[in-house]
Amino acid sequence: MAETGLPEGWEVRHSNSKNLPYYFNSSTKESRWEAPAGTDIDKLKMYMAQYHSAAQIGRDGVGSGAGKIRASHLLIKHRDSRRPSSWREPEITRPKEEAIATLLGHEARIRSGQVSLGDLAVSESDCSSARKRGDLGYFGRGEMQKEFEDAAFALKPGEVSHVVETASGVHLIERLE
Question: Pfam families of this UniProt entry (predicted)?
Fold first, then answer.
């Protein structure tokens, strides 16, 4: 067991839509609000107090401490996504190739200056952050899926990524701060 007290394969992540921590198993792609069976609750309480306490959360409800960045994204889910449903579509059946092709079309429009990622995210993103123009708020290392995090931290403020694939689907990411 790691310092979190969670069983092997589990980690604590932060839900930007609910501004709450949750538990994610990177092997099975399972996510849940309650600690999984086999958790050392005392260790978990200590970890949560140290890394997810109110003292680390800013007045706007989002941590913006050292080492954190702010990004927005546009997510297109496909039938093999972790949760193939969204606020836009209750059941997503498109293949991954179609999701990538759609995202490449959006990327071309953004790069040509026709539209901003935030403006497109409002109507085209399968993430609930669409209502906030794709804004995920501030996050640090270890709070997002690794592929997403690596791409976001590699960007300079104002830059937009190419297609980034995660268990959630395919994304375009814009680093805001």
Answer: Rotamase, WW
